[in-house]
Design goal:
about 400 residues, alpha+beta, five-stranded mixed beta sheet, 11 helices, about 35% helix, globular
């Protein structure tokens, strides 16, 4: 069991991610040869010291003159590179993230006509392919990213003077739900390529997952800053086989709300992204009957869910519980076929495993089982039992 944590306290770019992954143990010669065979570049890898921290500096040497590539041209180059399936799929998704962000910012819905500027150059192609190959070669079970320092001020690019983070970078952060913060430096610390690679591979966390460090690597950035311009990466052996997740618990008291309104609120909150909702009877001061509404939510959903609670109940405030961490099993939905009364039915089952793939639990989807029970005449409890029994034979 092994996790990779990127800690971009000084931002991230494609070459920094590549250097970090190589410094963590990815084979330098193999990745170098793959990059040079996939893009019209040469690669130099050397150790440097950035403000007292030894880091790996990856230089991508590109032709002096390059035409601006379109998104379809980039896709064709990746597909022609004879990459492994995993590396090709990652590279294509990373470029798709950048293309969709550029298209959204520039109001160009047709990706076939989208022209890449900075991110369409050969160095970006090399960074994406190289980083994908290096990260996959580390064989990590999970990858995380702590909040990213994006820098500040403005930058000059093909579209003129733009604020930091650049609009496309900000759009990638939004879509990838990555945590970020400004920096005390007037410089771009996070590039579109760096944000897209992290958005593809990493799950956002606000602090390091608990575990034992196996290896630490640093990828060097180009700029000279007051602090070390490096991307830190840490290989961890987690101390739990459960998966760390970040949640917030919202809570309020409601003493003048009907059951119908509460029932509707329950459904509305779930439809808006709440992970779970509980409404419990309570007694408030002066013996008034009331309800405690408790909602489990992702941090990015908390504000809209809190507003919904206030609007629907008339509450004047919603508490956000300070405990934000939980450990959870990895869950996925599988569809199976179960035979009942001489007929075959299909139902979904939820499979829960720990991070090492050990089966923890199987539960049948209730709505599917209720539908099957009505069709077959078999009690829903028996349908669920048979479905879970069948699934256990398939997935144990």
């Amino acid at each position: 069991m092994k996790s990779l944590v990127f800690n971009p306290f000084s931002g991230a770019a494609g070459d920094m991610i590549l250097g970090c992954a190589l410094d963590l143990g990815a084979d330098r010669e193999t990745v170098k040869e793959l990059i040079e065979a996939s893009a019209p570049v040469s690669v130099d890898i050397r150790e440097v010291v950035k403000k007292g921290i030894k880091a790996l500096d990856v230089r991508i040497n590109v032709p002096e003159k390059e035409h601006v590539r379109t998104y379809p041209e980039i896709v064709d180059l990746v597909k022609a590179a004879n990459l492994s399936h995993k590396v090709e799929a990652s590279a294509l998704d990373i470029f798709l993230k950048m293309a969709e962000a550029e298209a959204s910012v520039h109001g160009q819905p047709d990706l076939e006509k989208l022209h890449f500027h900075e991110v369409g150059q050969s160095d970006a192609l090399a960074d994406v392919i190289g980083s994908s190959a290096a990260i996959h070669s580390l064989n990590c079970d999970s990858i995380y990213c702590t909040p990213i320092s994006v820098g500040g001020g403005t930058i000059e690019c093909a579209h003129g003077t733009l604020p930091v983070p650049a609009p496309a970078t900000l759009e990638i952060l939004r879509r990838g739900k990555l945590y970020f913060r400004g920096g005390n430096v007037n410089k771009e610390l996070l590039t579109p390529t760096g944000s897209a690679i992290l958005a593809h591979f990493a799950k956002p966390v606000d602090t390091f997952p608990q575990g034992r460090a196996i290896a630490i690597g640093y990828g060097a950035g180009d700029a000279e800053l007051q602090g070390p311009n490096v991307l830190q990466g840490v290989l961890l052996e987690p101390d739990s086989h459960l998966i760390p997740d970040i949640i917030e618990v919202l809570e309020t008291n409601a003493d003048d709300v009907s059951g119908e309104v509460l029932g509707n609120l329950f459904e509305e909150l779930l439809s808006m992204g709440a992970r779970d909702v509980a409404i419990m009877p309570a007694t408030m001061k002066k013996g008034r009957p009331a309800h405690i509404i408790k909602v489990i939510a992702k941090p990015e959903d908390s504000s809209k869910l809190a507003r919904k609670i206030i609007v629907e109940t008339g509450s004047l405030g919603v508490r956000v519980m300070p405990a934000r961490h939980r450990l959870m099993a990895a869950r996925n939905i599988e569809r199976i076929k179960v035979e009942l009364e001489g007929q075959e039915f299909e139902t979904a089952v939820k499979i829960a495993r720990d991070s090492e793939g050990v089966l923890l639990n199987i539960s049948a989807e209730f709505e599917d089982c209720k539908r099957i029970a009505k069709s077959s005449g078999v009690p829903v409890r028996e349908v669920m039992r048979r479905a879970e029994e069948t699934a256990r034979k398939l997935f144990s």
